[in-house]
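Hi there. Long-time user, first ticket. I'm pasting a complex I've been working with (about 612 residues overall). I'd like to know whether the download I got is complete or cut off, because the file seemed smaller than I expected. Thanks.
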Amino acid sequence: MTDSPRYLTGDGDGIRDFIDKFDVFLFDCDGVLWSGDYLFPGTNETLELLRSRGKQVVFVTNNSTKSRADYKKKLESLGIPSSTEEIFSSSYSASIYISRILKLPENKRKVFVLGETGIEQELRSENVPFIGGTDPAYRRDITPEDYKLIAAGDESVIDPEVGVVLVGLDFHVNYLKLALAMHYVRRGAVFLATNIDSTLPNSGSLFPGAGSISAPLIMALGREPVSLGKPNQAMMDAIEGKFEFDRSRACMVGDRANTDIRFGLEGKLGGTLGVLTGVSSKEDFVSGSVRPAAYLDKLSDLLGSS
Amino acid sequence: MTDSPRYLTGDGDGIRDFIDKFDVFLFDCDGVLWSGDYLFPGTNETLELLRSRGKQVVFVTNNSTKSRADYKKKLESLGIPSSTEEIFSSSYSASIYISRILKLPENKRKVFVLGETGIEQELRSENVPFIGGTDPAYRRDITPEDYKLIAAGDESVIDPEVGVVLVGLDFHVNYLKLALAMHYVRRGAVFLATNIDSTLPNSGSLFPGAGSISAPLIMALGREPVSLGKPNQAMMDAIEGKFEFDRSRACMVGDRANTDIRFGLEGKLGGTLGVLTGVSSKEDFVSGSVRPAAYLDKLSDLLGSS
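Hi, the file is complete. Here it is re-exported in full:
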């Protein structure tokens, strides 16, 4: 994708032609529809416009701390009408991958979770057994005895049925959990991440993202996880499996070139649309190595189509 | 260094010649003298042999969780006679670097520490003010309010005098500390690490090392810290500054090719000696990209010199 993206803000005809090309719009959320708890003006009107023209709307988020049900509540709290079916989160994508794609041996079906409740809810919805996660038993310091038991693979600390380590954003990450995750992978567990976003936008600034929770393990193990969030195509496959859309008639809308736009390009969608209300800059979209087909100052500029 | 290393175990003449070439022996400790709490047989006899021949012995450790005084206690507990003066730790090296090399503005002299008491003790010994570290006030979950205050740089959570972030192995790492460290660096603080060892040997296995505590910040910031431990030459300069030895008459002894041996080679020491009682394998020493001048099955094979 080396063409310069088309700048659509204020280009009424261009916007109308662009919208007409697609049946499905996949939306990244934070940085596109809202920022943190601030709904961008015109977000709802824009979604209404698309729905009124018969477009399928899908909310695609790498946020693994929330389940689809949580995310629907988040959308509702901001006044955005949605259904759970329209939502795809990286925790859901990871759960689908574990339950339907990974062929785990009968006695290795358990998941050790580094993450929050969103992952747990989605694993439960797919009937995947798990340990770790928000279990308070893991929210403690490592002890000298732990080192010996972990090193020895003692079943009081190491569950022999764990066949997967799944890492998402964990606001309760600690050394004990990292040590356990490291040992499960060393013992043969599949190393997965819901997503590897390096940062998390909040309050107009950036904080450590889910990738920062995988990073210690990547460093200690010398191995990368399989990431199930954007831009990984496992997530696109899951979305397509659900909505059975024509990729050439779908458009990915996002604020991050290296995740959202890349996700759409590698998924061979008919279109990609960048917005300048999040992480990537105009410079990124126009001159970066990953460029959308078109970009807008803000999503609600789509309202200027008629 | 592309020559094959000389295998000295059982080679009495070779060992004698090798020892005679040096006045100073720098020892990595864990994996060379002991493993965890297990003193290798012959360690003391070997150190006695070297001392009896007038060799200066220096213990060089990347372990930042202990101060030099703590480390002396560790050596004593294993029955190894030593003086604090013979010990160089990465926390000491980092403190020297901050107090004597970095030229910090008057109002930016404070260090935000991600690490344990060893770092704190060494910073105190150099009169460097610090916050964070083992302060229990930082051992808590991040709150929604924290995000806002941190993003805004509010002085209730962000100390404007912090000019350095120093990251070592922190067994109490948490999301709040990572978020604060990230923001201090984004606000201009110098990003330092005591060391970036990916793993920590314990109980015959490997656990996340100090590098695993820097890793989330490297990922979130897209920047590497300056590391003051082996193989960084700031540590060699500090050792040389203290002992004023002739580098051509010094030998680095270690079990890790990519830290210990590299440290000696890049420091242009007269010799490097690998031992096979730790992380690196014979294959690493003989065919790896970083090769010692000589290697032994175990350190005490030096006793077979006469």
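A couple of notes from our side: Residues 252 and 264 of chain B are 5 Å apart (CA to CA). DSSP finds eleven helices and 16 strands in chain B.
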